[in-house]
What we know:
Strand content: 15-25%
Number of strands: 11
Number of helices: 12
Order of helices and strands: HHHEEEEEEHHEHEHEHHEHEHH
CATH architecture of the largest domain: Alpha-Beta Barrel
Structural class: alpha/beta
CATH superfamily of the largest domain: Aldolase class I
Number of domains: 2
Bound molecules: S-adenosyl-L-homocysteine
Shape: elongated
Amino acid sequence: MQIKLNSLPLSQERTILGLSKDELHSFVLGLETHHKRASMRVNQIWSWIYCHGVSSFSDMTNIDKNLRSKLQKFLNISRPTIEKKEVSNDGTTKYLFCLEDQTKIETVFIPEEKRSTLCISSQVGCTLNCSFCHTGTQKLVRNLTSQEIVGQVIAVYDDLDLWKKMKSEGGQSSHFEIITNIVFMGMGEPLLNYEEVKKACGILMDNKGLDFSRRRITLSTAGIVPKIKIAHEEIGCMIAVSLHATENKTRDILVPINKKWNLEQLLGSLRDDVKLRNSERVTFEYVMLDGVNDTKEDAHRLVRLLQGLPSKINLIPFNNWTGSQYKRSSSDRIKAFRDIIIKSRLPSPIRRPRGEDIMAACGQLKSNSLKKKQVYEEN
Ligand code: SAH
C-alpha cells in the first residue's frame, strides 16, 4: 500500500521526522517501485536522519540525485525552532520551542555525572490541573504530533552537537554518554496522547537510528489507569506514576484525575494488570508539600500501599512558582519521610532540584509566550 502524503494529518504534511519506518517505506515505494531497492533507500534515509542528523536531502550523498530531488519535493526534515535557550548554573538547559502553529513547548536537558536526561513534552499545556503544577495553569492545550515529539530530541542533538560526537567516536552507543535517558516529564500527560507518543517512542527506540533502549525511556503519568497496562505492553518503556498522596481525599485535590481513577484502582491495576519484567520496578513520584502530604503517617501509609509491588519512590522537593498555594517541605521533614520508606527496603532517593534558577525544574514549565498571549486575549 502506498502512502499518500495528503492522507497524513495536516500538521505532519511534508515532514519526515515522526513518520514510522513503515510509513516511510510506503511513501518511498511510491517513488521507487522496486521493493528491495525501496527498503535499501529507507534504511539509508533513516540512517542519514537519525544517525547523522542531516536536515537536507541534498546531503544524502549515497542516494541518487533523481530520488533525492523527488524526496525534496514532497518532504522536509524540519525541526521545531528554538525560540529561547536558558542555561542554569548547574548546567541544566531549558529550550523553548516554537511549533508551526506558533504554539510553544519546553524541553529540558539535565546533565549529571553518570547520565544525562532529556525531559520532553507530549502536549502543549495539560488538561489535568494538578493543583501544584505550573503547566496546569496554562490554558491552551493540544496534543503534539509524533513529529513534534521526535523533533524535540533531534533539535537538542543539533544544538548540543551530539551528532558529531556520535560519528567521531565511531559507535552507535557513544551518544549515550550525552543523552542517556529520555523522560516524558515535560508538559502534558503522555497517556492522553497515546498514539503519537507510542509512534514517537518507536522511532526513538529504533536500533538503526537513535537506539534508545526501552529501559532508557520513561513515561510519567498522573494515572490514566486503562492506558498504563497498554503502554507497558505495547511500548515496553519504563513507567513512572505521579502518586503524591496516600489518601484519596488529598489526592483528589493534588491530582484531580484521582476522582476518575482513585488510589485503589490505580494501585490495583499496577499490581494485577501490569506484568513487570525481570527486576523492573514502577517508579512513584511523590512531591513533598509542606503540611499537605509529608507526615510520618503518610510515609507509613505509603509503605503499606506499595507492599508487594516492586517500586521505587522518587521524593521530589516541591518546586515553587509564583502564585502557587504550596510550600516545599523542610529538608528535615523530607529526610524523616525518606527514612521511614528506606526501613521498608524500598529505594527512595530524594531528587535534587535542577535548573530552578531558570524555572526548568519539574512542574515549573509553562511557556511564557503563551501566558502573554492569554493576558492579551483576556484584556
Ligand atoms: N503528566 C505527567 C508528566 C508531566 S509532570 C505526570 O503527571 O506524571 C512530571 C512530574 O513533575 C510529575 O510527577 C509531576 O507531578 C511533577 N511536578 C509537577 N509540578 C511540580 C512541582 N511544582 N514541583 C515538583 N514536581 C512537580
